[in-house]
Amino acid sequence: MSILPSLPYTLDALAYASAIGLLSMGLSLTYATTKVPNFAQASIAMFGAVTLLLLIDRYYYYHPGWSVFLAGVVLGGLVTGAVAWLVYVTVLKPLADRGNTVIGLMIATFALDIIFVNVLTAYLDEAHGVHIPKLIGASITSFEPRLHIGDYIVYGYTIALPITAVVLTVIFHLFLTRTKFGVAMRATIENPDLASVLGVNVNLVYMVSWFLSGFLAGAAGALMAYTLKGVDPSAAELIIVTVFAGSIVGGLESVYWGLIGGFIVGLAEKLGMTLLNNFYRDYFVLKWHAPNVSLLNYEKFMSLGLVVVMLLYAPRGLAGIDWGAVARRLGLRRGGGGR
User: Fold this and answer.
1) Which residue, 16, 76, 132, 260, could crosslink 222 as a Cys pair with Cβ 3.0–4.6 Å?
2) What is the pLDDT of residue 24?
3) Where in the chain are the domains?
4) Residue 154 — φ and ψ, nearest 5°?
5) What is the DSSP letter of 155?
6) What is the pLDDT of residue 168?
């Protein structure tokens, strides 16, 4: 037996990690701007998954093609972006204006998370599909294009998700660095009081940041639906654990490091745990007759383990590490200088 996973499984792990990276980047964005830990990030992403499911049921059931990924990303992103915007405008901002603390706002997002999961579950449970008889728990992996790479059959989403993550990250970076509003958003993240004095509409920045966070969640959620055994909103309750782990590992207040942290955590859960499971199977179960237990059932151990290690040795996440000092210690850089 081989410890290394197959090509399709590796690509699936990369796709999952890309989705978690986008979700963590969105979570870090809203935390960096409004300082609210959004526990509803994963359940908001489920709106994107449901949007894609309805697209397949209404149109792509007989027309599986690559355009399903673009349609899912755009429509799912717009729907969830609107949901996230409404969360801020109708719930979080009024609560903040009434003097609620960050803890109160965080509890509000936790309540919204439960509400969203139950609303979406009830809708899918009662709705009648056009072509898919039972929407709740429906698997959509058969309604997409596939590629033949050597002896393997590769699902389209394993290619589309990483590409989507790269494209959205580049667009987001250009937005932050090349547009006036993006510069205003960066200024608000650094110092909202000073930005307000300089004429920046801070409240508008907050609303746009929540919309963008929702869009990233919806784009990730739409394509992430392919990685699930079935479209079930209750999956959000486990996904949010990984998303927060990614944001903490990367650094809650750093958008780009949130993306990297999410990717690392997602990869650790899928690929890392698979490698560990295969090693345990080959070298302990087969050779030493250890208990034949599948470690794949405990993938959250990897993400939460990374969180514990990060909080112990780098409380501000990867963003808080002096990488210049690390490079000098490893002999990769000479001289002084900061990060």
Assistant:
1) 76
2) 96
3) 7-266
4) -110, 130
5) E
6) 96
Per-residue pLDDT at 257: 95
- Considering the domain 7-266, what is its CATH architecture? Orthogonal Bundle (1.10)
Tokens describing residue 89: 């405008």
Q: If we measure between CA atoms, which residue out of 14, 85, 19, 26 comes closest to residue 256?
A: 26
Name the helix (H) or strand (E) containing 42. Answer: helix 41-55
- Of the candidates 80, 91, 65, 325, the one whose C-alpha atom is nearest the C-alpha of residue 220 is 80
CA distance 287 to 173: 50
Residue 338, pLDDT score: 43
- Which tokens belong to 277? 């499971």
Q: State residue 2's pLDDT score.
A: 65
- Alpha carbons 175 and 267: distance in angstroms, whole number: 27
To which residue do tokens 């999961």 refer? Answer: 117
pLDDT of 334: 67
pLDDT in the model for residue 283: 84
Give the C-alpha separation, 23 to 221, whole Å: 8
List Cα–Cα distances, 193 to 34, 184, 202, 208, 253, in angstroms. Answer: 12, 12, 9, 18, 17
Which residues pair with residue 153 across a beta bridge?
148
DSSP state of 130: S
Q: With CA atoms as reference, report the closest residue to 143 among 65, 89, 74, 199.
A: 65
- Of 254, 253, 244, which is closest to residue 38 (Cα–Cα)? 244
Residues of the chain where predicted confidence (pLDDT) is lower than 50: 337-339
| Cβ within 8 Å of residue 143, ≥6 positions away | 56, 60, 61, 64, 68
CA separation for the pair 102, 36 (Å, rounded): 6
Nearest to 77, CA basis, from 110, 111, 44: 44
CA distances from 70 to 106, 161, 225 (A): 33, 10, 14
Task: Tell me if 176 sits within 8 A of 185, measured CB to CB.
Answer: yes
Q: What is the pTM of this model?
A: 0.92
Helix (H) or strand (E) holding 85: helix 67-87
Tell me what pLDDT residue 287 has: 82
CA separation for the pair 55, 64 (Å, rounded): 11
The backbone torsions φ and ψ at residue 155, rounded to the nearest 5 degrees and listed phi first, read: -70, 145
pLDDT of residue 337: 46
